[in-house]
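Could you help me review a protein record that somebody else here produced? What it holds is a sequence and that sequence's fold in token form. I need someone to confirm that the token line plausibly describes how this chain folds. Take the sequence as given and treat only the tokens as open to question. This is what I was given:
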Amino acid sequence: MLGMMLSALSCTPREENLIIISTSDIHSKLDMLPRLATLIDEAHAQDTARVFVVDAGDRWTGNPYVDMASNVGRPIIEQMNRLGYDVATFGNHEFDMGLDTLQKRVEDATFDLVLANIDTKESPLCQPKPYVIKRAGGVKVGFLGIITNYANGHPDGKDRIFEGTEFFSPEWTAERYGRELREKCDVMVLLSHCGLDRDTTNLATSFPYADLIVSGHTHETYSGKVGDVMVVQGNNKLRAVGLTTIKLLDGEIVALNSRYITLPEEGKESVAEEIEEYKKDPYLNQSVGTLTAEATKMGLAQMMADEGRKVAGTDLAFYHIGGTRIASLAEGNVRRADIYELEPFSSNLVITEMTLEEIEEMIINKFNDTTNYKESHRVDLIPSGLTYTIHTDSKGDAVRVRFRPEERKRVYTVAMSNYVYENKTYNYTRRPEVGRTPLVTSYLFDRLAEGAYTPDNTPRGEIK
């Protein structure tokens, strides 16, 4: 009788259920963490599945209560530890605070950090593991980390913050580790900070071994299959997160479904109380001035360009819309924290010289950029001292630019954000640097201290 019972049990398929909650591009959005904590608690409360919480990079840069903490970046790591994250990869903004600081935050994390396409060499950052395998009952789940890499040899960002490291092709790296990891695990997950455009094309093709790609970097919401590979991306600042459910029988996946969802309205009270403690900094909450009307994202970018041109004493100025990190500022009081959230990169403007032909080259090449999808085919360079129209062809690519400068000159003095001047994803003829402004935050503080500011929200660049 016992033999018959054991025989029957051995024929019963072993069922395992997994839930993967995935985030990306949190950018220190502390206020959303109590709601994320509620979602994670609800998933654990089901008691029918093993829950994994994972992140695809860009955990900080965007909130002064994290970026200017006494231990830079630590608040977001503390909360990720508290929420029970299992594994994460690196985004380009993880490098913003320098490799020494990044290594300290890696050491603070109680979750695994994986990244396969980097060689940290002799830099302060210790070489991360390319992947990690987690167990869920009898199931082995592999997580491989990948970060984007552009023609300039590193992820998006200033050249200097990546000094001492080397990055490899995401596609080549994924293919290199794919077969090896596939043979070691039952479920294979790629944590990719490459952007949805690459994740749904090149990476899904070069990494068919994956069951799931958790995508980050492009701040979009997406869920869909590319061949046999499921791809999911929530949105930035926890406006949405990925939710993937996987059912296995005897170690074989029989169902895998992904979707993106908004977080519960009710936040976990104990987490909310901790977040409020981070936000009690009197220096950051100090008023620095007022706005006479709401400033849109465009109005804020134009404010940074206009005030920078005045400080630099140049004919023209350009700020990039991607460096404008908040969507708007309301009419009325402006806090120090608002300005640091608007510009969290410690940027300044580089002073140089350019002809209109060189400016046209810069605008067209950025508009037609095929390597940095999220920054192309838009008005990226926000001007002061002129307006312009980008004319496009039937494919939607820029072919020429028409300018309306305040004064026609053969050569103009120009101030532009150091990100644009230094980052080789902006492809144009560079002339020598002849000077720099103070920090953008500094000259904005100075202007707001002079009196109420009236923003100009009317766009100065258009596409036809």
